[in-house]
C-alpha cells in the first residue's frame, strides 16, 4: 500500500521555488506571538536538572494531564498527551477501528485531508457525507449514511477548510448516532479558541462512552512546531490507546509540555481574545477584496480559512500554481478537500500580509 503525501507539502515547495515574491496562504501556521508564559517556561526548562531531560511519563506529564482534565471536566486518567492533534486523531481513529464494530469511517465532504489519509493507513474504508454550502453538517444525512459497518464518525468544528461552527444540537445528535450504531464520534476541536461565532459546542458536553475529543495547543497558543496535543477517551477505551501511544512514541517530548503547562496556568483570556480580534480584522479585509474580485466565498465563523471561488478558475493544483506565478498568492486547491469543493480555493489567514494578498487577488481577478 502506498500512503499519500499530503498535497499541502507540494504547494509549499512550489511557492518556495517561485522566482517572485509570494504571499503564503497555504499553511495553518499562526504568525502571531505565543503566550509570554510559554517562552518563560521554555527558558526555565533549560536550567532544570538532567533528570528532566530523560523520559517523561508516556501518557504525558501528570500535572499537564490534570490541568487539561480540570479544564475539560474529565478525569486525568482519560487524558493522553499526544504529538499534536494529529496523533490524537490517529489514536482515536485506530481505537474506533480495533473495536470490531465495523471498519467504515464517516467523514464530511469537504474534509481535512489527513482524515482520509489516516483511514486508509489504518485499513479502514471511508464514506463521505456532504455538508451544505456554508459547511454545516445535517445530522439526518449522517444518520442516513450510518450502518452496522460504521466504526467512527470524524468531525471538526470550527472547521478546516469551511470555517463552519457546528451548533450544540448537531454535536448532541452526532453523539446519539454514534451510540445508536455502536460507533465512536471523534470530535477534532483544534480550532476551539478561534470560534468567531460564539456558538462553538464541544462534544464533551454530552457524556458518552461513544465519543473521543481531540485537541492541541498548536493553534490556540500559536505553537504548531511544539507538538503538544491531547485526546480525551471514555474510561473504557483509554487503556489500549495509551499502549498504542507508548509503542509508537515511547513518550512525548517533555520541554514543550512543561512550557504549555506554564502557559495554561498564567495566560489571561485577553491573549486568546486578541488573536480572535486579529483574525476578525483579517476576515473583513480579505472578504472585502474578494467582493472587489467578484468572487464567491463563505465568511468563516471559526478557524483560519476562507474558501473562495473565482469565475472560470477551478481549484485545481494547476490553477493554484498559476496563481502563485501570476498573482504572487499561494492558496490550497479546493480539490484537496474533496469533490464538492473542486471549483474552490482555500486561503489561510495566518500571514501579516493578508491585505497585500487581498489586493493582489482583487487586481488579478478584478
Ligand atoms: C482540523 C485539523 N486537525 C488537526 C490538525 C493538526 O494539528 P496538530 O498540528 O496539533 O497535529 C490540523 C492542522 O492544521 C487541522 O487543521
From TrEMBL:
<dbReference type="InterPro" id="IPR004839">
    <property type="entry name" value="Aminotransferase_I/II_large"/>
</dbReference>
<comment type="subunit">
    <text>Homodimer.</text>
</comment>
<dbReference type="GO" id="GO:0030170">
    <property type="term" value="F:pyridoxal phosphate binding"/>
</dbReference>
<comment type="similarity">
    <text>Belongs to the class-I pyridoxal-phosphate-dependent aminotransferase family.</text>
</comment>
<dbReference type="GO" id="GO:0006520">
    <property type="term" value="P:amino acid metabolic process"/>
</dbReference>
<feature type="domain" description="Aminotransferase class I/classII large">
    <location>
        <begin position="21"/>
        <end position="361"/>
    </location>
</feature>
<dbReference type="GO" id="GO:0008483">
    <property type="term" value="F:transaminase activity"/>
</dbReference>
<dbReference type="Pfam" id="PF00155">
    <property type="entry name" value="Aminotran_1_2"/>
</dbReference>
<dbReference type="InterPro" id="IPR015421">
    <property type="entry name" value="PyrdxlP-dep_Trfase_major"/>
</dbReference>
<protein>
    <submittedName>
        <fullName>Class I and II aminotransferase</fullName>
    </submittedName>
</protein>
<keyword id="KW-0032">Aminotransferase</keyword>
<dbReference type="InterPro" id="IPR050596">
    <property type="entry name" value="AspAT/PAT-like"/>
</dbReference>
<keyword id="KW-0808">Transferase</keyword>
<dbReference type="InterPro" id="IPR015424">
    <property type="entry name" value="PyrdxlP-dep_Trfase"/>
</dbReference>
<keyword id="KW-0663">Pyridoxal phosphate</keyword>
Amino acid at each position: 500500500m502506498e500512503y499519500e503525501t499530503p498535497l499541502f507539502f507540494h504547494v509549499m515547495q512550489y511557492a518556495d521555488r517561485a522566482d517572485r515574491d509570494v504571499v503564503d496562504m497555504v499553511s495553518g501556521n499562526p504568525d502571531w506571538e505565543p503566550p509570554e508564559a510559554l517562552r518563560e517556561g521554555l527558558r526555565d526548562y533549560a536550567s532544570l536538572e538532567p533528570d528532566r531531560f530523560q523520559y517523561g511519563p508516556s501518557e504525558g506529564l501528570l500535572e499537564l494531564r490534570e490541568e487539561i482534565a480540570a479544564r475539560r471536566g474529565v478525569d486525568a486518567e482519560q487524558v493522553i498527551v499526544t504529538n499534536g492533534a494529529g496523533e490524537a486523531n490517529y489514536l482515536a481513529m485506530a481505537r474506533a477501528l480495533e473495536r470490531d464494530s465495523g471498519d467504515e469511517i464517516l467523514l464530511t465532504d469537504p474534509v481535512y485531508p489527513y482524515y482520509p489519509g489516516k483511514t486508509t493507513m489504518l485499513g479502514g474504508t471511508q464514506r463521505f457525507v456532504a455538508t451544505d454550502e456554508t459547511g454545516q453538517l445535517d445530522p439526518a444525512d449522517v444518520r442516513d449514511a450510518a450502518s452496522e459497518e460504521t466504526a467512527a464518525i470524524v468531525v471538526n468544528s470550527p472547521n478546516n477548510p469551511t470555517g463552519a461552527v457546528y451548533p450544540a444540537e448537531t454535536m448532541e445528535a452526532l453523539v446519539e448516532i454514534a451510540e445508536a450504531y455502536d460507533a465512536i464520534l471523534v470530535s477534532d476541536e483544534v480550532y476551539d479558541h478561534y470560534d468567531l461565532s460564539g456558538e462553538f459546542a464541544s462534544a464533551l458536553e454530552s457524556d458518552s462512552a461513544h465519543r473521543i475529543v481531540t485537541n492541541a495547543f498548536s493553534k490556540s497558543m500559536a505553537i504548531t512546531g511544539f507538538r503538544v496535543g491531547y485526546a480525551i477517551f471514555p474510561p473504557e477505551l483509554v487503556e489500549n490507546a495509551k499502549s498504542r501511544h507508548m509503542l509508537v512514541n515511547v513518550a512525548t517530548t517533555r520541554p514543550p509540555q512543561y512550557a504549555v503547562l506554564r502557559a495554561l496556568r498564567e495566560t489571561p483570556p485577553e491573549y486568546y481574545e486578541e488573536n480572535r480580534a486579529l483574525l476578525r480584522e483579517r476576515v473583513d479585509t480579505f472578504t472585502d477584496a474578494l467582493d472587489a474580485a467578484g468572487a464567491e466565498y463563505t465568511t468563516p465563523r471559526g478557524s483560519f480559512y476562507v474558501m473562495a471561488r473565482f469565475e472560470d478558475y477551478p481549484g485545481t493544483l494547476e490553477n493554484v500554481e498559476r496563481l502563485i506565478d501570476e498573482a504572487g498568492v499561494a492558496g490550497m486547491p479546493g480539490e484537496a478537500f474533496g469533490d464538492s469543493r473542486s471549483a474552490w480555493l482555500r486561503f489561510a489567514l495566518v500571514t501579516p500580509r493578508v491585505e497585500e494578498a487581498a489586493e493582489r487577488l482583487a487586481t488579478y481577478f478584478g
